[in-house]
Amino acid sequence: MPTSPKRKVYHGVLQEIREFIEKNNLLPGDKLPSERDLADTLQAGRSSVREALRAMELLGLIVTKQGEGTFLSNYRPYQTVELLSSFILQENSTKNDLMLTKKVLEKEAAKLAFSRINEEEVKDLKLILANSEWKQSEKHVAFFTYVFERTENLLLVKIWQLMEDFSRAMINIYYKDSFYRELIQLYITRSYLSIEALFEHYTTSETDGRK
Amino acid sequence: MPTSPKRKVYHGVLQEIREFIEKNNLLPGDKLPSERDLADTLQAGRSSVREALRAMELLGLIVTKQGEGTFLSNYRPYQTVELLSSFILQENSTKNDLMLTKKVLEKEAAKLAFSRINEEEVKDLKLILANSEWKQSEKHVAFFTYVFERTENLLLVKIWQLMEDFSRAMINIYYKDSFYRELIQLYITRSYLSIEALFEHYTTSETDGRK
DNA sequence: AGTTAAAGGTGGTCTGACCACTATAGAACG
DNA sequence: CGTTCTATAGTGGTCAGACCACCTTTAACT
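^ Those are the sequences you sent over. The predicted structure of the assembly is below.
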């Protein structure tokens, strides 16, 4: 029996839209034809067109505004990463994996922020720690949220936030109080190389396989 | 005027499916409820359910077989990558975020694998490098896939794979040939502390993503 | 018991019908 | 003339129902 490919309609629609964008040289912000137009032009049902568009929207390739239309968007993988990560996180993470991965990200963020953080911002970090209104776990989140923002790496921020959200559902993870103070101290004394050691010192536990 | 969030139905369906998977502890290969069942259970139209499923399919999270059903898949985002690569506008900021995040993960994996890797496995790494059938970029993937498996941290593996797939859609990233050799050497000589320096040395300034 | 045909379940697709929202043309007003 | 308001048309959002193609299961037949 000849196994014809038999691609689904929405795949074809996807391809057509792609070609349309290329042919008309559409740029982010430009408007796509309406769903009804596309369905008519491509000789497909509107529902099939929508399946393709919805998938594109979920990936962040387009944005839709009710009553206005569908617009090409400036693609960034962050949205996709966020979506996929949410599945990855729920499906296979053990507590240990999660804690260790989170630690790794926090450590690297601390190092990346090193060269980008100034005295004024170090003061902000101190203020976070001094805020007695917050619980320890809240301080941890606020502290590292600030640090991660300094890395100027939106992708890193997104991944960490997801893991933070997820881990909070299972357990509150934070370091000893002195840890944060010492990290600030390293920022002040410009001791980049000690950051790695600081993390190792405060987190060597059963989760870390290294000997 | 109260601006209600007004999330679209297919977003809700997506979340419900995610929760269903978690609650029932579904594993790759397991069957999801039929589209009609889902529509009925979630009180949504079948077309809305399909929009969510189609998006998941495009992401490679599920596979659908006509006449049989919808099944949870072992996440392999190749299809996504292929699709996205034709839409992606290569933004430098995005690329930099990706490359840096990937590097961080690879470095930490290399360190985590340190204590878990034995002589036999070091030999395997050498074999990967020696395989002349592969392109450099393929060697990179094979090499680090092996390293990541040694970390015994499934979450780390998944996140790295995600980064790897995305970066591959934009640009092939790998290190100089000598980098891999030197890393192996560090495994042999048990020089844990030099791993960090090795990565810093080979990845300072611009990243080399040559073909 | 083995084979075959019918029935039911599932995804794939289309159509038509509403709804909610937005932009716009044209009427009404000052 | 210009402004404001309003009816209308266009757009995405959603649903229900109807087929089709395909697969599995069941039942009937030999």
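Residues 206-211 of chain A have pLDDT under 50 and may be disordered. The first strand of chain A starts at residue 62 and ends at 65.

Shout if you want it in another format.
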